[in-house]
Amino acid sequence: TKVSGLTSVVDSAGALLSGLSQQVKDLAAKLAENADVPAAIESLNQLSTAIDEQNTELAAAVTANTPAAPS
């Protein structure tokens, strides 16, 4: 159905954003361990936060705009 198709798209987008966020966090951790680059680490952390926020916004928008399943 249209809604189940949308759910699949949203799940895929959410997984993508979560994966990207984790990759950024992992990179920031590596930089913290192996280099003294505080500005780069802060930028990466800000990017990760922005990705997480957009993921939350996407989920909320889909929930708000998806009709309830008929009972």
N-to-C span = 15 Å
Give me the count of strands.
0
Provide a count of the helices.
2
Instruction: State which percent range the strand residues make up.
Output: under 5%
Q: Which series of helices and strands comes N to C?
A: HH
Note the main sheet. none
Give the % helix. over 70%
Structural class: mainly alpha
Rg of Cα set: 17 Å
Low-confidence stretches: none
User: How confident overall, as mean pLDDT?
Assistant: 77
Q: In summary, what is this structure?
A:
By secondary structure, this protein is mostly helical. The protein is 86% helix and 0% strand.
What features would you describe in this structure?
The protein is mainly alpha-helical. It contains two helices and no strands. The chain has helices at 2-34, 38-65. α1 packs antiparallel against α2. The longest helix has 33 residues, at 2-34. It is elongated, with a radius of gyration of 17 Å.
